[in-house]
Specification:
Layout: H1 10-20, E1 36-39, E2 54-57, H2 59-65, H3 70-75, H4 87-102
Antiparallel strand pairs: 1-2
């Protein structure tokens, strides 16, 4: 590995914040004043400390992700392979997963009208 530095620099953190639009890349909620610069491919698994391998996350999401790669972390919350979701179902599922990942203690309701294709 050519880059042995584990922590992102202050400039890199600013770049990650700006790239995320001030939202956590995992739960899409506004980032708190003290946020985490996360390695998409974990440093412990050979990921480099560079903005191309970084994302701004809230502390709660980053700690839940742990040392998993983003694709592995997201796959823990996925629909079965043989399920062909309608657009509204995919949008609901994505919103629900972001809520679950963020750990916010609130209710979540989906209302599917008749003929919605449940």
């Amino acid at each position: 590995m050519t880059n042995q530095r584990r922590r992102f620099t202050k400039r890199q953190k600013i770049d990650l914040y700006l790239a995320s639009g001030g939202l956590c890349e995992i739960c899409q909620q506004p980032l708190p004043p003290v946020f985490h610069a996360d390695h998409i491919k974990p440093y412990s698994k050979g990921g480099i400390t560079d903005v191309i391998n970084g994302q701004a996350t809230c502390p709660k999401c980053n700690l839940r992700k742990g040392d998993k790669e983003m694709r592995d972390f997201k796959n823990t919350f996925s629909l079965p392979d043989n399920f062909e979701a309608r657009t509204w179902q995919s949008e609901f599922f994505d919103s629900y997963i972001r809520k679950c990942i963020s750990g916010r203690d609130s209710n979540f309701l989906l209302e599917a009208c008749p003929a919605a294709g449940k």
